[in-house]
Design a protein that fits this description.
The complex is a heterodimer of chains A (743) and B (222). With 743 residues, chain A is an alpha+beta fold. Chain A contains 27 helices and 28 strands. In chain A, the strands form 5 sheets. Chain A has a 7-stranded mixed sheet with strand order 8-10-7-11-9-12-13. A 7-stranded mixed sheet of chain A has the order 23-25-22-26-24-27-28. In chain A, β4, α9 and β5 form a beta-alpha-beta unit. Chain B has 222 residues and is an alpha/beta fold. Chain B has a single domain, classed as Class I glutamine amidotransferase (GATase) domain (Rossmann fold, 3-Layer(aba) Sandwich). Chain B has 5 helices and 11 strands. In chain B, the strands form 2 sheets. A 9-stranded mixed sheet of chain B has the order 2-1-3-4-11-10-9-6-7, with helices on both faces. In chain B, strands 5-8 form a two-stranded antiparallel ribbon. In chain B, α1 crosses α5. Chain B is globular, with a radius of gyration of 15 Å. Classes of the chains: A alpha+beta (743), B alpha/beta (222). At the A-B interface, α9 and α11 of A face α1 and β6 of B.
């Protein structure tokens, strides 16, 4: 194939181009021609097609996502907001923390190990790019039915991939979720969160400023992996009749990424870069156009200088390659020698591939011939925007009008059966089979991890300052009511931070949905965004960034709407954190919050195959009062333990608490079945010294939160009214599920 | 008292090992794989991680680094050397210790709090422990199954060179539940679990790992 230069494009306007195969619609192709005043060269077409894909351009979600800015609460903590590689918040003492969650769903279904591994690699580079040292990762995962044969292929591979990559980078894995549902069978969700820390002065942005500055590519060499991965993998529904679109999952090398991290941090510490961008989805197309857009717009790149792993790659392929472990920096010429030295120390390949110009065009040459000449903003930021049709799907009225019909346990035997059933249910069972494959200790700052309510890491050894993070989603509720579902997930994540004694500060999100071309899915998405934006405004928590993953559907079956919400909080002294459970007998157990008959969308309903009724209505004012109560109680040091109640209700909450340190409890409940199984939001179980009961009641009155004593700690059983469950029996039910399913 | 902590490309627990050394009262000195200079240290720690990505075999490439030539020489002269996890693997590859670490028997990476029993408190790294003392420290690795031939195993056992053993169920298939061994002289010790991650109950399961670091301080002061 001959080189398609700008000159050639001008002289052959009628050449047929495969825009449709690259995922572009005819009107999008027409718009590219209009922008350029000619047909695009094949390299330009490659760039526009990847950058205008759903994954990179957010073309279907943009019109909704702007609510996060429009409704943003005033927050003094927000240092860098939406739009950069990751948001940055001020956590005090001169420290800034950056965190973000992203999806790597489609690649992980095709090739579980590499898909999940490179998902970690990508999010870690996003955090690194902000100038931060990555300090922890978390992984919310969703799979098809636990006992489905394909889950046995997908889950172990994904877990091994996350462990294989994250462990090798030296990043502690401090939490996440593992949830099963039929709708994820062909579309497992692999979301990855990374958090990093830096000093305020070290924040880096993706901008190419200063004419004459050099464009420097460093990290792994470019190969043929992931070519078209962004537009093909992330934007197409899986369909068995089109198997040809299933190549090109990227392959990761965590060792190279580890070197890249240390090398970059040393480069940052010596202030050697003007701007920096990692190469993720859309590779060089994305990095060059975004860096140029972040500056005045002018940049020249000699593409033939890019070091290649496969010398046969064409310029189009080099532009689209998603080879992992690469970064692109803007460096002042006089700092280049030192930059090269540091790369040499870490054995990192580095090449100056171009320079910033004072023009406003991104010009890319191949052996001296001009093959790209575009206004970079039109590639990076001014892609198509769709206001897609949406309509409330028919199922909503149908399921909302049906009352959930479930058997409710009454007798001691029935209660025992229900508690054991929930303890062993795959969604609630012990996840050590998964988490023991992740290193939680590396870096020596992990204060809390699985199975605590949140992950917590220390960021200063001297002052004991720390951050806590929780990720949560309740797709059952989002299915019944996406608006409430988003608010409820936000409230749960914030509560999970506060139980430890950390103050919620900022929000990230990963919105996993079906096809945006389905008006019903689009409605679910719009309602979710509206709910999350309203919720964040009500709770005073800014959204710092996030990720949208569409097309999670097989044929016409879409996944449950699954907004995974991550909340980050700050704790002034990690030594004072409240754990999720008690290790002593003789404490009083209190339930904070009101229990209603909230069985719709509950785990109990799920186990009965029921997904009907109405989701609870989020009362965020009450949630905030509960959070303030928890923080006040933490400050007054009255809590021995505090544990959020969510999926599986009080039954699951008590199971987790008594098994944590093998100290039992004696519980007395009225209306025992509903009390155990309801999943009413805004509830927490706390363990306190009986002498502190008055303090707790006073706090509850001050914050207008219902409080009731439900029992005491001690013994070697979980006793609920007249039902006695031996801890060994409960433990066996809880811990054997995963080994039985996955070996 | 200066204790060197080596960083290879891909080493992960170097900061943790240095923290543990400092916590014990000694001074941690960071050593770089490419630099043969041991900077006048009194003892050396090879920390955990995935040096050179564990490519080829865990520890197989690191053993050829300039710093390892110096370590091998110093170990021959009696300098105390402790290899933790990947460091243990490097010591085996360097033939400072016998045997090899192979993939865990269940083929999964395993991170958990592990009870071990100290079975030799005569090495410079274990003097503060009493014999048969049981401690809980993290175990985290993918290739932690200690293997050697029958003759070597008999030798290790007969000469009392098994420094620590796993208690309870075998976590990774190691022969004779071996968690750590020493060389004939006793100055070189390899340990699969991670004492540097058990120096403070706030960030580890216990503070019982600190004993390895106070031991070396005591041994050198004596």
């Amino acid at each position: 194939m001959s080189l398609d230069t700008v000159a050639a494009a001008q002289s052959s306007p009628d050449t047929k181009q495969p825009f449709a195969e690259l995922g572009l619609k005819p009107d999008e192709y027409a718009r590219i021609k209009e922008i350029l005043g000619r047909r695009p060269t094949s390299s330009e077409l490659a760039m526009y097609s990847v950058m205008w894909s759903e994954h990179c351009s957010y073309k279907s979600s943009k019109v909704h996502l702007k609510q996060f800015s429009e409704k943003a609460p005033k927050s003094a903590a927000l240092l860098v907001g939406i739009g950069e590689n990751a948001g940055v918040v001020d956590v005090g003492q001169g420290y800034a923390v950056t965190f973000k969650i992203e999806s790597h769903n489609h690649p992980s279904f095709i090739e579980p190990y590499q898909g999940a591994a490179t998902g970690i690699g990508g999010i870690v580079r996003d955090i690194l790019t902000m100038g931060a040292r990555p300090i922890a990762v978390m992984d919310p995962l969703r799979f098809g039915p636990a006992d489905a044969p394909d889950t046995r292929r997908v889950l172990p591979g994904i877990v091994a991939g996350i462990g294989g990559y994250g462990n090798c980078l030296g990043l502690p894995n401090i939490g996440g979720e593992v949830v099963f549902d039929q709708t994820y069978a062909g579309n497992p969700l692999v979301n990855a969160l990374c958090v990093g820390v830096m000093k305020h002065s070290d924040i880096k942005l993706a901008k190419a400023a200063g004419a004459g500055n050099l464009v420097v590519l460093f990290g792994a060499k470019t190969g043929g992996d992931g070519i078209g991965g962004v537009s093909v993998l992330a934007s197409e529904t899986f369909d068995s009749s089109r198997s040809t679109k299933r190549p090109s999952v990227q392959v990761g090398d965590p060792f190279v990424e580890k070197l890249l991290i240390e090398c970059s941090l040393e480069i940052f510490a010596e202030d050697l870069v003007v701007g920096i961008q990692d190469l993720g989805g859309a590779g060089l197309s994305c990095a060059t156009s975004e860096l140029a857009s972040g500056g005045s717009g002018g940049m020249k790149v000699a593409l033939d200088r890019v070091p290649l792993r496969d010398p046969s790659l064409s310029p189009e392929e080099i532009l689209m390659s998603e080879s992992q472990e690469r970064m692109c920096a803007i460096v002042e010429p006089h700092k280049l020698p030192r930059f090269l030295e540091i790369c040499k120390k870490w054995d990192v390949t580095v090449t100056a591939i171009g320079e910033v110009t004072d023009g406003n065009r991104l010009e890319i040459t191949w052996n001296g011939e001009l093959i790209v000449n575009v206004p970079p903003r039109t590639v990076a930021h001014e892609g198509p925007v769709y206001n897609r049709p949406m309509a409330q799907p028919a199922y909503i009225d149908k399921v909302n009008s049906q009352k959930v019909k479930l058997s409710i346990p009454h007798t001691a035997t029935e209660i025992k059966e229900a508690v054991l059933k929930l303890a062993a249910a795959p969604n609630l069972a012990d996840k050590s089979w998964v988490t023991s494959q992740y290193d939680k200790y590396v870096q020596g700052n992990t204060i809390q991890s699985h199975p605590e309510d949140s992950g917590m890491v220390r960021i200063d050894e001297t002052t004991h300052l720390g951050v806590a993070i929780s990720t949560d989603a309740n797709a059952n509720w989002s299915y019944l009511n996406p608006y409430q579902g988003a608010k409820l997930a936000l409230a749960e994540a914030a509560r999970n931070i506060a139980t430890a004694g950390a103050r919620p500060l900022a929000v990230t999100n990963c919105l996993n949905f079906g096809s945006p071309e389905d008006p019903g899915v689009m409605w679910q998405f719009a309602e979710t965004v509206r709910g999350l934006a309203d919720g964040c405004l009500a709770m005073g928590l800014p959204v710092t960034g996030g990720n949208v993953s569409f097309y999670n559907q097989t044929g016409t079956v879409s996944i449950l709407p699954t907004p995974v919400i991550g909340v980050l909080g700050v704790i002034q002294d990690v030594r004072t954190r409240t754990p999720m459970s008690f290790d002593t007998a003789g404490l009083d157990l209190f339930l904070l919050g009101q229990t209603y008959e909230d069985l719709s969308g509950s785990e109990w309903a799920f186990l009965h195959g029921e997904r009907t009724g109405q989701a609870p209505t989020a009362d965020l004012a009450r949630e905030m009062r509960l959070i303030e109560l928890l923080l006040a109680g933490h400050a007054a040091k009255i809590f021995h333990a505090a544990h959020d109640l969510s999926q599986g209700g009080l039954s699951a909450g008590l199971t987790e608490m008594v098994l944590r340190y093998s100290v039992g409890a004696i519980i007395a409940l009225e209306n025992v079945g509903v009390a155990l199984l309801s999943e009413s939001p805004g509830r927490v179980v706390v363990a306190i010294d009986p002498k502190k009961a008055t303090n707790l009641r006073e706090l509850a009155t001050t914050h207008s939160i219902k409080v009731e004593k439900i029992g005491t700690t001690g013994g070697d059983s979980l006793t609920i009214n007249d039902c006695v469950i031996d801890l060994d029996e409960l433990r066996h039910a809880h811990i054997s599920t995963f080994p039985r399913l996955f070996g | 008292m200066r204790v060197g902590v080596i960083t290879f490309p891909g080493t992960l627990d170097d900061r943790d090992a240095a923290r543990a050394v400092n916590r014990s009262g000694a001074q941690a000195v960071l050593l770089w794989h490419g630099d043969a200079d041991l900077k006048k240290v009194d003892a050396v720690i090879l920390p955990g991680g995935f040096s050179y990505g564990d490519y080829l075999r865990a520890g197989a490439i690191s053993r050829f680094s300039p710093v390892m030539n110096s370590v091998i020489e110093a170990a021959g002269e009696g300098m105390p050397v402790l290899g933790i996890c990947n460091g243990f693997q490097v010591l085996c590859e360097s033939h400072l210790l016998p045997g090899a670490l192979t993939r865990n028997s269940d083929l999964h990476f395993l991170c958990r709090d592990q009870e071990i029993e100290i079975t030799n408190n005569m090495t410079p790294w274990t003097t503060t422990f009493s014999l048969k003392e049981r401690i809980v420290i993290p175990l985290k690795n993918g290739e932690g199954s200690f293997q050697c031939d029958d003759k070597t195993l008999a030798q290790l056992e007969d000469e009392g060179r098994v420094v620590a053993r796993y208690v309870g169920e075998n976590p990774n298939g190691s022969r004779n539940l071996i968690a750590g061994i020493s060389n004939e002289r006793g100055n070189v010790v390899g340990l699969m679990p991670h004492p540097e991650h058990a120096i403070d109950p706030l960030t580890g399961p216990t503070a019982q790992g600190l004993g390895f670091f106070t031991s070396i301080l005591n041994s050198m002061v004596k």
